[in-house]
Amino acid sequence: MACQILVLYYSRHGSTQRLARAIARGVESVDGCEAILRTVPELDTSREESGDINVSISELKACDGLAMGSPVWFGNMAAPLKHFWDQTTSLWLSGDLIDKPACVFTSSSSMHGGQESTAMSMMLPLLHHGMMIMGIPYSEPQLHSTTTGGTPYGASHVANSSVQLSDDELALASALGQRLASTAYKLKHN
Predict the structure, then answer these.
(1) In the UniProt record, which is one GO cellular component term (predicted)?
(2) Tens of pLDDT along 95-149?
(3) What is the Cα–Cα distance from 70 to 15, expressed in whole angstroms?
(4) Residue 69 to residues 21, 94, 139, Cα–Cα distance (Å)
(5) CA dist 165 to 11, 20, 91, 162, 168, Å?
C-alpha cells in the first residue's frame, strides 16, 4: 500500500507551483511513496486556473502526509488556501488529521517579503488539526549557503532575481519532500 503525500498549493504567478513540483519529486524519490499534486480554486472566477486538479476534503482526509504552499500575501497565506482550510471543520471534529506529518513552503518577490510569517500562518490550521509540523534541519548544507530561498520553517523561493528555482532552493525543496515522505512512510508502516 503506497504512502500518499498530498502536495497542496496555491500559486498566482507559478513560483509556488514550481516549489510544489520540486517537493513532489522529493516525495517520489522515497520508495513506497506517491505525491498527489493538488491546488485550490481561485476565489476570483475571472482569473485563470493553474491547470492542476483542485483538492477535495476526502483527499486531505485520506493522505498520509501533507506539504502545503502559498505565495506571500502581506505576510500571510493566500486567501484561496485559507478559504479551503475554513471548510475543514468536519476533519477537525473527527480528528482525521491528528498525528499526520506536515510541512509548508512559500515564495515571495523579495528576500524580506514575509516568507517566515507566511510559513507560520500556514502552520496554524495544521496545529489546530493536530498535525506534526516538520521543517528543514540545519543538517541540510544548502540551508547554510543559500542566498535565495530556503528556511528552517520550510522550502521557499525568492522570485525577484529569477522565475526559476535556484539550485539551493531545488535541493531544499526536494530534501523537505524526502523528509516528509520518509516520516509518513515510517508512521504508516510501524
Answers:
(1) membrane
(2) 999 999 999 999 998 888 899 999 999 999 999 999 999 999 999 999 999 988 8
(3) 9
(4) 11, 24, 22
(5) 14, 11, 34, 7, 8
Give me the residue label for grid cell 484561496: 80
Query: CA angle at residue 129 from 35 to 59, to 5 degrees?
Result: 35
Determine the pLDDT at residue 12.
87
Phi/psi at 146 (nearest 5 deg)? -60, 140
Question: pTM for the full model?
Answer: 0.95
Distance of CA 18 to the CA centre of its chain: 11
Q: What nine digits make up the cell of 161? A: 532575481
Confidence at residue 88, expressed as pLDDT on a 0 to 100 scale? 98
User: Residue 29 corresponds to which cell in the numbers above?
Assistant: 524519490
Homologous superfamily assigned to 3-39+49-188: Flavodoxin domain (3.40.50.360)
Termini Cα distance of the chain: 13
Point out which residues pair with 103 in neighbouring strands: 67
